[in-house]
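RETRY 2/3 - previous attempt timed out on the joint model. Re-submitting the same 525-residue input unchanged.
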Amino acid sequence: MSEHDAPVPFRAGGFLPREHPLAGAATLIALLLLWQAGASLGWFSTAFLSTPIGIARALISLAASGELWVNLAASLQRLAIGWVVGTLGGLAVGVAVGLFTLARSPGMALVSALFPIPKIALVPLFIIWFGIGEGSKDVTLAFGVFFPTVINTMAGIDAVPRALIRMGQSFGLGRWAILRKIVLPGALPAILAGFRITTSTAIILLVAAEMIGAQHGIGAFVLEAGNLYDIDNLMAGIVLLSVIGLCTSWLIGRVERALLGWR
Amino acid sequence: MTPDASALRLEARGIHHAFGDLVVLDGIDLDVPAGEVLVLVGPSGCGKSTLLSILGGMLKPDGGQARMRGAVAADCLNALTYVFQDFSLLPWRSVAGNISLVLEGTRLSAAERQRRIADMLALTGLSAFADAWPRQLSGGMRQRVGIARALAVNPAVLLMDEPLSALDAQTRALLLDELAAIIARAGVTVVYVTHNLSEAALLGHQIVVLSRRPGRVREILRIDRPLGERRASDPDLLSIEERLWALIRDDAAEADREIEHV
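RETRY 2/3 succeeded.
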């Protein structure tokens, strides 16, 4: 036996990380300053790694010459067409696979067989089929976006509680009303989560397709800058890609907040 | 009963159902006269909820038939209407939106729809919560939405699957009184599944005791006193509760020791 005469010690501390947005921003700024200082003090050669100021100068002169807008417009157009087409197709097939026995096994067999193919490997094939122009690029993007959209849509529909669907049926709602008012809103969180994956997939494929065969576009621009050892422009292109990624994820965040306020 | 109320009776004839090898219902015959409340009680797993699903056409029985007979009021939009144990509210629709769901696509005009929603919200004490999300409500308020939604279609038969069992004891007692008043006033035919024997005694005109698997009708008790004149503390109701418990007790103990099959 042991005697006790002490306050009960508190034992449930820690394991509760908190967010500090300022600390996040400060980290990035500090890194940029360190990077710039490293170059200015000659810690590394600017022939191999550009500097924040160098990248900013490159971006400004690209904007002034108009080259920036030509490449950006080409890339954004491909991104928009490819992503929208792939998403619409993926949603349609995903809904069919999620709802109908007839579509389920054939659809899943097809998705399982084609999804693992690295889409970049298909770019040369698509160029043969659809030509070196816009067609092959749009198809590459759409193809890459299509499969994850199918999988996420199907998973989202599978996750809609059957009890809610039965409730709708018990009140005599028609199939279309159940699909529109119960199934799709219930699957929406999974579908929007899928959009985050497919937009970044689309950016990866965009760059790959533009590097294989394009006159304009950020991918082509980065490749050309690399061939010319133009490190400032090369990294300016990479920064642009990062900005595009940030913008799309911000947009999806806005859509999520607008549509999923009920959560 | 209001003059334009439905007068629909529900009949079960020789209903038999099995999940695989497991016979859950075996030769169930029941009559639910129009305007009466039939309460189904029995140990867990005796097939009460299965029977309720069959009565409302949500499950096809392996044998036998559920029939409805009689007149349905002109303004009834869904004759056989459920109230669910888990409420089954759409989380992405507001309280009013959940009620609106079952009125959309019907012959009601937009103005009539709005009026019915407002009436049902008022009836169930939800008027102040019309725009709230379901997640913001307590369990009791959520089930009020479930009840308001069911009443909005002016049902001929209400099929209630343990509507109060997801609630805490205090909320349950409050809502039970309201439910009894609403049922008495609406004059609808009700089939009410519960494992709570005092709910059974307070609400039932007939209390049907089902036996443990395979579910068969073991006994039917009648209470003819109107719902409005019943109090939980009435001695005759308490003695009915005791009789019900005596009937179920051994089966319930047996059911509790069973390994889940389904």
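The mean pLDDT of chain A is 93. Closing ticket.
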